[in-house]
């Protein structure tokens, strides 16, 4: 039997998850979105045929509540739910970046089953990568429910230590921007070498897509794939030698460490109680 699923917040990520769930066979009548915008509620209802509401408390009759709001308003939303009699009833799945499960549980009044997730933006195209962490109140059945929801937007993996979500944030959460930066740099370099902007863009994007598919579908490591396309004394070897000489690996390592540290800092900042 499919669980009933409610979302608080009807933005892009919620829409992506809803679209994926419907495509996987979830009945639209089992989904509710609580959203303050009249226009957004109407759009969601027309696009997906799901239930909508302007009242956040309506979500408490559902099996799973997905907290799909901005981190800055999550505390207000949770404290509103905490004032209701059935606040501890549903499984809460938070996709709000940076806020730890103990803060969410405290704001909900305690004793809540919480799965915290770190998706990334390709989830909007069902190509996401999401890591999940469950607190001790989450049952095996609820873990499966949370996993099914996030798998509608791509691949999922579980971590046993919530602090590892800071590493996930550094790697996959922020990771799409790193690849965008490389694409941007390659396009610029191609133009500097004489290509027109459209050609440089087309070639860099298709090369990125092709390399990602090769790595994803291959049974060997990226290191082995790199070795296979690098002929001794050739053009690729010259480019890779330049990367190495300029500290490419160290640059990437330091960048992820900076993202990791900032993720931990934000968890502390966003998890504070508002006065």
Protein described:
The chain is α/β, with parallel strands linked by helices and 275 residues long. The chain has 2 domains: 5-165, Rossmann fold (3-Layer(aba) Sandwich), CATH 3.40.50; 175-264, ProC C-terminal domain-like (ProC C-terminal domain-like fold, Orthogonal Bundle), CATH 1.10.3730. It is built from 11 helices and 8 strands. The protein has helices at residues 12-23, 38-48, 71-82, 101-107, 140-151, 164-173, 175-192, 197-217, 222-228, 235-245, 248-270; strands at residues 5-8, 31-34, 51-53, 64-67, 91-94, 113-118, 128-134, 154-158. Strands 3-2-1-4-5-6-7-8 form an 8-stranded mixed beta sheet, with helices on both faces.
Q: Major sheet: size, sense and barrel closure? A: 8 strands, mixed
What structural class results from the helix and strand content?
alpha/beta
Number of strands: 8
Mean pLDDT, all residues = 94
Q: C-alpha Rg, in Å?
A: 22 Å
Give the uncertain stretches in residue-range form: none
Q: What general form does the structure show?
A: elongated
N/C terminus separation: 42 Å
Q: What is the CATH C-level name of the largest domain?
A: Alpha Beta
What count of domains describes the coordinates? 2
Order of adjacent strands in the largest pleated sheet: 3-2-1-4-5-6-7-8
Helix count equals: 11
Question: What amount of the residues lies in strands?
Answer: 5-15%
Helix content: 40-55%
CATH superfamily of the largest domain: NAD(P)-binding Rossmann-like Domain
SSE order in H/E notation?
EHEHEEHEHEEHEHHHHHH
Instruction: Assign the CATH topology of the largest domain.
Output: Rossmann fold
**Named CATH architecture of the largest domain:** 3-Layer(aba) Sandwich
